[in-house]
Amino acid sequence: MVSAPDDAPSLTGAAPLIDVHAHFHTPLSGRADWSAYNASRLDAGHRMGVIAHVASVLGSWGHRSPTYFPSPHDLTAANQWMRDFAREDAEGRAQRVYAYVAVNPNHPEHALREIREGIAQGAVGIKLAASRKADDVLLDDIAAIAAEHDAPILHHVWQDRRREWPGQDASDAVELGRLASRHPRARFLLAHIGGGGDWAHTLHAVRDLTNISVDLSGSGIDRGMMDATIDAFGVHRVMWAADLTLCTGLTKAWAIDAIGLDDAAVADLRWRNAVRWFPRAAFAVSEPGAVA
Amino acid sequence: MTAQTPMAPWFAEVDVSAWIGPYPFRDVPHPDPEVLVRVLARERVRSAWVGWLPSAWHRDPAAGNRRLIEALAPWREVLVPAVAIRPDWPHWEQELTFGLEAGAASVRCYPAQWGLGAGHPAITQLAHACAAARVPLHITVRFEDLRQRHVMDSAGDVPAAAIRAVARAGTGCRVVVSGAGRDYMEEVWWGLTVEERALVHFDFGWMWGPPEDHFATVVREVGHGPFVYGSQWPLRLVQQSRALLALLPHEIARSTPLPVPGVETVSRPA
User: Fold this and answer.
1) What global pTM score does this model have?
2) Do A2 and B249 touch (CB under 8 A)?
3) What separation in angstroms does the CA of B270 have from each of A87, A183, B229, B243, B264?
4) Which of A26, B95, B192, B204 is paired with B1 by a 20 to 30 Å CA distance?
5) Interchain contact, B151 vs A162, CB within 8 Å
6) CATH for the stretch B12-266
């Protein structure tokens, strides 16, 4: 991987970006280019001005157990790899990779043990994907321990899921909203408003639940989506993110500049909301007047 | 505010994939020609080939062509009409003549919405006519991601076989494809002879950049020649193709001058 020179200006200007929805691959992913994938993410992030990747690994990404139904064994290995990667990447440089703990609620004892151990070892949040619907009672203990540790939950969401899709027990905003209502002290990050489905439904479904914020990631770049999301939630409950496509992340970072927000709102979207939402992360960023 | 990628005075000559007009399945902000002109200026794109968005879902696109040409009239230095021609409709040849006389830069055809399968003889006839008129035939694979489509938007994507069929028909017609991802583009490209593939150009805005690096992979494999710049405005954020170019690995960006890819080869002669 060949990057731009270190002194090249960021593609998105001087203000930092924090990617609150990132993923990496591991040797267990079953793809020969796992290391190149990770290098590409870090390289493109550097060129875009991403100072922090808050990331998870969903088990073996389908190699040994399904991506959205990962086995406990795969999750333990993936979570440990994720934390090790974050620590090793920070050797000799400011930390730029932060770990979620990814868990499968169908294995409750394992999930709680992973969360406790992960947070004790530096994880900054919890990742729930699509192993169980968000409103299932099996998620209650996870939400409770998240509140106890002040660790936000990033929850995979299919915007307005109108049927069951193969390969996952996807939740939509209504289902996540039920969990958030039961756990007002827990904080949730509704994943990828641009990640598939009808984002307009989500805006109405959870706009009144203030312990839910949304991330802008996903391959979807519908015109009007960002404006409507910010109108629905306000700038303090929306975070820039990339997920699987940093190209659409760059598009959205540029679009943030084109929709008429003031500098403070732009900073909220790009990084300040992430600083507020992830108190355990202690991101290496600050500015005069910033809430950090 | 951001300091964007250093660029030539014009980032691209032509956005081949723009529309104006409303979208039937959701509200799209300001799909108006005066807004498109401002967006192009902001993005440093010199001009756009512009279709009438509702025409894809109209049985007869003729009325939409007239509304398009009327709406673009004040901005014809920048916005060039791309008329929609349904080749299984009576007297479509006259509609094509009307569009060409109005200065159409390209011809849009929506096979999925109009029920024309891959290899349909009417599309081949339209390709012959476009080749004779030296205008490209533009086929839109998809307007939205499959996962978000309205329950009434049941047409589906245009299969790659439809593109291959046009390229293989021996008409000499140049084809512009928008809405194609990596797999689709590769299926078309490697499914054609060298001579056939030279006729096909891809708006690359739906490909994925890093970390999967689909766009970089295809540029490495096939070069930049097949690619044209397109935005699918007003449905999609216009910055996407520029973002894909900006995030190409440095060794590709350095060796592959992409900013105006292929447009001159699909433009009508002056």
Assistant:
1) 0.94
2) yes
3) 60, 66, 20, 31, 11
4) B204
5) yes
6) 3.20.20.140
